[in-house]
Amino acid sequence: MVALALCAPPLRPATAGTAGEAGEAEALYRRALLDLTHEGVDARREAARRLERATQLSPDSVTYHLTLARLYLRMGFLGQARHRYELVGRLRPDIAEAHLGQGLAWRRDYLKYLDRSSLRRALDEFGEAAHLAPSHAEPWLGMLPLLVEEERLPEALEAAENLGATAPDRADGTLGVAEVAYRMGQVERADSAFRAALPRLPRVVRERYLDIAPLSTEADTAISNHLAPVEREAFLARFWKENDPDLASAVNEAQLEYWSRVTQAYLLYFDSRRRQWDQRGEVYVRYGPPDVAQYNPVGSSLRFQMGAYGVFPMNVLVWSYHGLGMNVPMQDRLLSEYYLPPVSLHHSTDPAPDPDSLALRLGSVATGGGRGVFPLLPPGVRMLPMDAALARFAGEGGQRLLGWLESPGAPGDSLWGEWVVLDSSRTEVARLARPLSASACDAAERRSAEFDSDLPPGTYLVGMTVRGGMAGDGGGPRRGSHRARITIEAPRPDLDLSDVVVCCGPPDVGSPGGASPRVRIAGNPAARVPDAGPLVAYFEAYHLTPGADGLSRIEFEYTVRSAERDPRLWFQRLLAPRPALPNVSATRREEQAGDLRRQFVTVPVKDLPPGRYRLEIRVRDLNAGTEAARAAEFVRGPGRGTSG
Questions:
Q1: What's the pTM value of the predicted model, to 2 decimals?
Q2: In CATH, what class is 1-133?
């Protein structure tokens, strides 16, 4: 990606011992250049041999040393390349390429051995090259990803802006600005810069940004590959909408995080000759930088069997992601610093997070099968804990979807809630926003908001977001978000029930004002039942069958069961089963006029130990002989809000 053609000296001093030696050195130099017109290891080795002899005959020739340094760097002889570039720097301190070459060598040393001191040496050399040749793009391009690695973001932004100014015909500077702006929390600027840069990229690079194969399932990848361009664009837009952490925001934070990772992988690992990156780039764009990286760790096998050809040496790189419970081994089987996944005939070697670790990672969103993991929040935004709940009810013109969100907050806090609903094509069909008010569950310490939308039957993606600041909190923006997929069924003509809603108190039916007045429900999104309080829940029963006397006859059965999962191994559960908690159950019959029943129930649960429980409600229409059931889970005892 970086061309070594920076401030080469116009002349070389010829200070060999004799004119004959100078002529021989010149002849060797020209033969070496001819060798380099041919591809192949042997040609490069022969060129190196001739150039080494030429530098011995003319030790003060900057041109000979520079040419040999470039060749050593190309061959991967990093120490020898640095040595030659250092010689050039001593001969001509004003030549920027001497420092640029050392920077490139140190950077490759860092990427190979993961030594942070090599990274800093590379930055020092790139900085000196930029000082000597500020109008050239290569030093800025070399230092940009390393400054990001070091999290020196203001300096990285300056390097990206200088790169754009020195090479306005290339999109690299705009990409760098976009990546660094996102990492600094300037998401709108990042989104705008990425969208300006992508059309200007070479096709082979642009495809890396548009390709979802690293993140998606094999089925999605196969579908995408067989679509026409316009259809594929719509498919990709739907994919990213499916994985948008915050449906209410103006940008897609997961896509911006992915594009930022692609930019870093492109600047660090992309091989312009192969027109691709190796396994390091593939893993980086899926999971970001590793927590720990080890080069040839103790205990690793550094040899591999190549069929009947024998055993060959290799280098091994292991990236560890502790939060995902995942170690990713990679193999340099050609000793060329090009890493590949291990080969196995018995199991998949594709990286995959540990399912339990992924389930506990509340601040993240994962694409299909955990093939990619992205943070819920953009950089610079702190998580605001929140709880959310959804419930389906029959509405006047169809089905009614209700949502509640709740977050910690005092009366003086300024919190704002948003509600977004996308249909099966991921087109927005509803959006609402309102300030949070005092929660019916805890007016002093929690704030809440309620939303609702009338929707036709279908499958929807629902997002709820809370954002704002806490009184006296000078720590920057805070946000919490929640996403859920929900299916709304077509109304049934026979007995049917709404979802069961755990409440903070009885519902407010209000003035009838019509045949089907709406009820205001004090939803309890956290589904927490205080230690001394009863469980309060609300539901509705539809299409009851009146008898000859015009009365509907209903039987209700309420049962509370433990929903705690025993985490022990199966044989431990078999040998030492835990005593089952007694169920709390009640049944009663009632009569009423009409086919709609609005019902809230109060269940005493103070004698139950703290834990998670399931409330099951079964309703029987005694006139029609039909029944329907619904359930809701709740937590007995103290709880806290979550986000995700």
A1: 0.87
A2: mainly alpha
